[in-house]
User: Fold this.
Amino acid sequence: MTTHYVDLTVVPDAETGVAPLLGTLYDRLHRTLVQQRLDGIGVSFPQYSTIPRNLGDTLRLHGSESVLRDFMACDWLLGMRDHVRSSGVAAAPADASHRVVQRRQFKSNVERLRRRRMKRKGETAAQAARAIPDSAAEKPHLPYVHLRSLSTGQPFCLFIALGPLQADSLSGRFNTYGLGEGSTIPWF
Assistant:
């Protein structure tokens, strides 16, 4: 159950802004969740906004009190302590609404879509171009965090989408990004 939370606020300096620090913090969170095989920690961004697109400066971790205390006791923030302020583990408000926080992927690279179609359907480049026009590219409209893939080392944008507010929580597991397809976190 996601009954407790910890706020981790990044503190920029003259050389590093909020967005790169939030990306580094999220990278470390993801790496640690993978290493420890944890699926009981969810994330949210209390300052989330789509207009303008912004995640804010705070990453909120959600989970049970014991899971969060154990997680925060490990040394996953090593090297970032000058740039991160932690609120400590606290109980989430009992009257909070709940929502799903999940990843949203966009098909924004038309050339990649065409290459996939050519490979999958055995089409020529011209056939794939006719089937997938330039206008087929989706325009991302959600806030995101810049990350680096653990498997390939390639940078990518992890777009964050919020589900609708709901009165009741839905228990379940979170992925290694702290996101849940059906699991909710308290939203406050």
In short: The longest strand covers residues 155-162. The mean pLDDT is 94. The CA atoms of residues 7 and 35 lie 22 Å apart.
